[in-house]
Design goal:
homodimer
């Protein structure tokens, strides 16, 4: 098992969907990522919270063995907050408010141990910060990056710089089209491969995820669920399962990357079944194995 | 190889997409279906055209070995015509005009040979006609049915009657929700299984197709294409590959049905690459095998 470092947000989310609402619930890209990845490999969070961040939330991650030595708790500051809502089309979140708070002045500085980690996930934050973290790493075996429309539009040059330094880009379909300035998804993914990452993973919500490399495709369906409550964190949980599995195996060969896609889809399928990390909190390794088997059956022509 | 009968439309389509336009091109559900199925098994078309139907189109189907003994050419009548358009979201067709013409008074009467066929496809037509054909069949091994919002809304009772007499329903996702009156797709599919068909195949355009049985799921992705020109006929071509493969094997066991889903997706992936049947006309059995292998690779964790 190899060490896995994630830099991203640890946040308090207020989310409403047609099925309910939560206020100031545990959220953030690094939170979902690290919780999911903790089922697979030792994971280290780089980030910052304010002094208002509930102790219970830190305990929750610590009980999963997540290392939070590099999660700064800043006195006198407030935690990052996101408020969003979903309509019946759960594929699209509407952001109502973002309070960067402590994250606005966050400047990561990694310890020698973190710098030496072979697996790195740059969650969806300012590409300047993503590059700063990447630069501090000694020689990672595999670096993956997530981003969003806000940075594609607002910090394109910095993002392009970050992309040249990563192996895998995880991105949703609309953002892939926006980044590549190309409406066809396959052409968009191939154009992105030219920008740096050798693997592009396109997340399509309830329609699954498509991986595009130079010439290959791999498709991981989404699990057909009878009840989807809240898609918040699904993409970060996917990344957690994906990177967690690769770090666990210490491998980056094509077969391992394909299996990692399935584990990503498996973990995301749990997250959306409840608000915040509620479903993940009830999760056992046996649940993960069982759903992985169900995913395999779902695409296997020999049932 | 077992005989396969299809009842449906043989039509002249006028279609515009963001990529071009065709006028009075060969179309119709039975046309796409039979052309695709002809690569797998002996297929027999039950339908009607007017005396204006171009001889070339009949020759085209005949060269593929499609039996058109039961395709009535009605003197003094006009062929069924459909005019539609697509925007950049190619998943949704907008019907501009439908002229039933000869189809309005079509009353199928099957020959003894057709009645004895073991495989039957009831393409998207009036459910009264679908039932009329089903009733004439001796004892089919497998009957599949396609339908659309127009019949779900306008002839619900007759459609429910038809569903009780079929094994497989092929339907798109919005129509599955409409038929079951249930927004969640998995619940909708399971509700439809209670209505009669033991297998429900939900077509989701560029997102692939999902098969739901009592407890199982099977997922066939759509092939990621760099150029999609016209989705007209994709669903009927899918059905042609699906039913054609089953008729070729003469089997209806779960593994064969799963392989049939992939052959359906393979055939549909060709149809959308050009207008009308243009891509299918250039198709060789080797092309089909090659793309089938590509589909398998696309979901196989051992690349």
């Amino acid at each position: 098992m190899a060490d896995l470092v994630v830099v991203g947000s640890v946040a308090l989310d207020t989310v409403s969907t047609p099925f309910g609402k939560v206020s100031e619930a545990l959220g953030g890209s690094a939170t979902y990522f690290s919780y999911a990845a903790s089922f697979f490999a030792p994971v280290h969070v780089v980030g910052a919270v304010g002094e208002d961040f509930p102790r219970d939330h830190l305990d929750l991650l610590q009980r999963r063995g997540v290392d939070m030595e590099a999660l700064e708790v800043r006195p006198g500051k407030k935690t990052f907050r996101w408020t969003g809502e979903y309509g019946f089309d759960l594929n699209e979140a509407r952001t109502l408010e973002t309070q960067l708070n402590v994250f606005a002045e966050f400047r990561p500085s990694l310890s020698p141990r973190h710098r030496a980690a072979p697996f790195l996930f740059l969650a969806n934050i300012d590409p300047d910060l993503q590059r700063e973290v990447r630069r501090q790493m000694t020689n990672p075996v595999l670096t993956a990056l997530d981003t969003m429309n806000f940075w594609i539009e607002g910090k394109r040059e910095s993002l392009l710089g970050a992309l040249r330094e990563v192996d895998v880009l995880l991105i949703n379909d609309a953002e892939a089209r926006m980044l590549a300035r190309q409406p066809n998804l396959v052409k968009a993914a191939r154009a992105i491969v030219e920008l740096g990452p050798r693997v592009v993973v396109i997340k399509r919500g309830e329609y699954g995820a498509l991986m595009v490399t130079g010439k290959d495709f791999f498709f991981a369906p989404a699990y057909p669920l009878e009840n989807v409550f809240d898609p918040t964190g699904a993409g970060d949980t996917f990344a957690g399962g994906f990177m967690g599995y690769l770090a666990q195996r210490g491998l980056t060969d094509p077969a391992s990357v394909r299996k990692a896609m399935i584990f990503g889809a498996v973990m995301a399928s749990f997250t959306v079944e409840d608000f915040s990390l509620e479903r993940l909190k009830r999760l056992s390794p046996a649940d993960i194995e069982e759903r992985y088997a169900a995913f395999r059956t779902m695409v296997n022509v020999e049932p």
